[in-house]
């Protein structure tokens, strides 16, 4: 086909070929459209493929205020004396109980006696004075000690927790977990001949037993200190005895067993 001389002749040829309707209002230069460079294909990024410009950096380290239980373990292990352990407790800020407490309640009595009593946690009077068992329960404990020939010069007293929980509530599992490294190191440094656990909370956290105190009291158990098994007597807490004085006879039986065990231990029979 030869190129026609006029646009009108081209139009007539299209009509004869069957192109009898327009498909757009504006004429399109198809040859010019083909000359334009095609845009690069879009690349879909997977959800795990961060954009190099806008994706935030992700840290693989845990966020937060550190590891308070790990800090407690490190501080407790580093203590080589009771004085160093007390200083470590006073430096430790991982437990929220310390922020609401007045004092760190460490211990009272004579550690050289190696007769270790472990209570639960400081109360109001203990928090104020910074010593364990100085309130009403403490006065009863002094009478219990005297009944078997002991006092604070011949026994040593501490608690599972060194800070008073608000309203004297039981410690949470997290609070107890932060206190236990210090308590275990405390026991190791005292190296007791006999341990007496006062109350169910003490038994639960020292011995890892969840039985009620009425099931565990009066029965000797063993606690490993440096490869040596220490005899442990669970008994009723003095605060409980103030509420249930009829059970003092049960505590008296436990204390008599403790007195006999101390005598046998010191005589080298155990």
Put the structure in a nutshell:
The chain is α/β, with parallel strands linked by helices and 270 residues long. The chain contains 12 helices and 6 strands. 42% of the residues lie in helices and 11% in strands.
List its salient traits.
single chain, 270 residues, alpha/beta, Uracil-DNA Glycosylase, subunit E, six-stranded mixed beta sheet, 6 strands, 11% strand, globular
Q: Could you walk me through the main structural features you see in this protein, from its secondary elements to its overall organization?
A:
The protein is built from 12 helices and 6 strands. The protein is of the alpha/beta class. It has one domain: Uracil-DNA glycosylase-like domain (Uracil-DNA Glycosylase, subunit E, 3-Layer(aba) Sandwich). The chain has a 6-stranded mixed β-sheet, with helices on both faces. β5 and β6 form a beta hairpin. α3 packs antiparallel against α4 and α3 runs parallel beside α8. About 11% of the residues have low confidence.
- Encode the helix/strand succession as letters: HHHHHEEHHEHEHHEEHH
Averaged pLDDT? 84
Strand order of the largest sheet: 1-3-2-4-6-5
What is the fold-level CATH name, i.e. the topology?
Answer: Uracil-DNA Glycosylase, subunit E
Distance between the termini: 124 Å
What value does the Rg take, in angstroms? 40 Å
Helix % is 40-55%
- State the fourth-level CATH superfamily: Uracil-DNA glycosylase-like domain
Total separate domains: 1
Shape: globular
The parts where pLDDT drops under 50 for at least 5 residues are 33-37, 40-64
Architecture in CATH? 3-Layer(aba) Sandwich
The number of strands is 6
Number of DSSP helices? Answer: 12
Q: What about the largest sheet?
A: 6 strands, mixed
Q: Please report the first level of CATH classification, the CATH class.
A: Alpha Beta
Class by SSE composition: alpha/beta
Portion in strands: 5-15%
